[in-house]
Design a protein that fits this description.
This protein is α+β, with helices and mostly antiparallel strands and 491 residues long. The chain contains 15 helices and 26 strands. The structure holds flavin-adenine dinucleotide.
């Protein structure tokens, strides 16, 4: 190991993805330093929902009670703003996000600034240092390390991860390609006070765009050539610009007496063609941008962090070869690509005009069919995500998927996962003998009963993915293959 580096992993950006990644690294024993441009946490209420996969991931790390504190208020806010607690596809609010066959797999409603506070506290409790008010401006990669220029001082690390959002400096400096589709629409939004709210029509899709409001948040979405003109506009959104947009969208004049956290965003859909270039990696919005429709971006980014954290820690701690990191792009890129695609479809379905109106009516009717509704539920939650595993697996339908919680004698899988260790739970003593060479890398837990009739043993990665499973006697070579792939050759 190169001992001259300042830290094992330098994380750029203390947004939710950066903080979860840093926490995962620290939990696995790697040194992580986070550098954040903002001097104070971002108060911007962007995301309000984390999907079931990210919610489960946080529950596995013991953060369930913290997150749950916000859920009731978040649900009330959602009902107020959308008139429904259902999920939506292109603002057709009919999607049941909880699968009927797995009713415990639920999302959490928590505003992004609250989530960031929870994650920051969690990471700091694990020893992560966050250097606020510090901006990365340059980076140089060598054979053994990466050197970053932060506020004029050099910081060296074995790896650097850009969690620095959609306009990622890391992505640009490290030369990642970022292909995708240009925007169809522009959204302008902010927390406002209006002299008179009653002049506004009900929120929703109108002839010339969309009007959104709820609580103190108000915004518009407009389609058309104006979008291209604004694509590179960096100046902050002003009261005049938002007022003019409201007039264009719904034909009324509003008097905005205060505007806080103004923002403008486009619905372009772009994704880094790889999430890794040597010692530099990307996660979260730095790796993929798309419209926020359906509330998927944060969930996607948190799951990137979960996937990368343990792999990167194993690499810097010398427990795994650097090639393990290639599985990060292999597993996460297709998941991001699927989200980009469904947000493109949503943008198309939100465009103004009678043709889209007709298509939306059909879509809305289709969503009343239970199987179609379930399809949209899976699409929006990603619960059906199944990674292709690079070895013959035991042919269990859940291998490669993130596992729902189940009982392991008088505890549960998620309670056992608090330390972020790989777990091999089983009811067959022969398993412990096969896995003995990996006993220092994997927690091997013998149980009398598992709360799933279709499993007698399960190898679960630190990110909650079922890496191998058996029902009945294990095939030793299949289990060894899975253990070798993720956790090295064993002793
Ligand atoms: C209106 C809206 C609603 C949304 N709703 C949802 C939702 O309901 N559910 C959902 O899942 N997603 C939603 N999203 C998406 C979600 O907000 C993003 O996906 C999420 O913020 C991504 O987190 P991140 O940590 O990757 O990036 P960010 O939150 O953007 O954090 C990046 C951090 O990096 C810092 N940084 C940038 N450059 C540098 C630099 N050079 N040096 C140091 N620091 C730097 C920034 O200051 C920032 O703190 C929504 C987005 C919007 C805009």
């Amino acid at each position: 190991m190169n001992t001259s580096t300042d830290t094992d992993v330098l994380v750029i950006g203390a947004g939710p993805v950066g903080m979860l990644l840093a926490a995962e690294l620290a939990l696995a024993g790697a040194r992580a330093l986070v550098v954040e441009r903002l001097a104070e946490p971002n108060p911007d209420r962007k995301a309000r929902t984390i999907g079931p996969l990210a919610t489960e991931a946080l529950r596995r790390r013991g953060l369930g009670p913290e997150i749950a504190k916000f859920h009731e208020q978040g649900t009330a806010d959602l009902r107020r703003d959308h008139g429904s607690e259902r999920g939506h596809f292109a603002h057709i609010h009919k999607v049941d996000l909880t699968p009927t066959d797995e009713p415990d797999r639920t999302r959490a409603l928590i505003w992004q600034p609250d989530l960031e506070r929870v994650l920051t506290k969690h990471a700091e409790a694990l020893g992560v240092t966050v250097r606020r008010g510090s901006t990365l401006t340059e980076l140089h990669t060598g054979d053994d390390s990466v050197t970053a220029l932060v506020d004029g001082s050099e910081i060296s690390a074995r790896y650097l991860v850009g969690c620095d959002g959609g306009r990622s400096t890391v992505r640009k400096l490290a030369g990642f390609e970022f292909p995708g589709t240009p925007p169809l629409s522009i959204t302008r939004a902010g927390e406002v006070e209006l002299a008179d709210w009653t002049v506004l029509p009900p929120p929703g899709r109108l002839a010339d765009g969309q009007l959104m409001y709820g609580g103190s948040l108000m915004g518009t979405t407009e389609y058309g050539p104006a979008v291209a003109a604004l694509e590179s506009k960096d100046a902050p959104l002003t009261v005049d610009e938002l007022t003019a947009s409201v007039r264009r969208v719904c034909g009324v004049d509003v008097t905005i007496t205060s505007l806080r956290n103004p923002r403008r965003f486009l619905d372009h859909a772009r994704q880094a063609s790889t999430y890794r270039r040597g010692r530099v990696l990307l996660a979260g919005d730095a790796a993929h941008v798309h419209s926020p429709n359906g509330g998927q971006g944060l969930n996607l980014g948190l799951m990137d962090a979960l996937n990368l954290g343990w792999k990167l820690a194993a690499t810097v701690l010398g427990r795994a070869p650097d090639t393990l990191l290639d599985s990060y792009t292999a597993e996460r890129h297709p998941v991001g690509e699927a989200v980009l695609n469904n947000t493109r479809a949503q943008s198309a379905l939100l465009a103004p005009g009678p043709h889209t109106d007709a298509l939306r009516d059909i879509m809305s009717d289709l969503m009343d069919l239970p199987s179609v509704n379930a399809y949209f539920g899976q699409l929006m939650t990603g619960l059906h995500t199944r990674y292709a595993l690079p070895y013959p697996d035991a042919a269990h339908p859940d291998t490669g998927r993130h596992l729902a919680d189940f009982a392991v004698d008088d505890t549960t899988l998620y309670e056992l996962a608090g330390q972020g260790h790989p777990l091999l739970v089983h009811t067959d003593p022969a398993i412990a003998r096969i896995a003995a060479p990996w006993a220092s890398a994997v927690d091997v837990i013998g149980a009398t009963t598992l709360g799933r009739d279709d499993l007698s043993a399960a190898l679960v990665r630190p990110d909650g993915v079922l890496a191998w499973a058996a029902l009945g006697p294990a095939e030793p070579e299949l289990l060894r293959g899975a253990l070798r792939c993720w956790f090295g050759p064993g002793r």
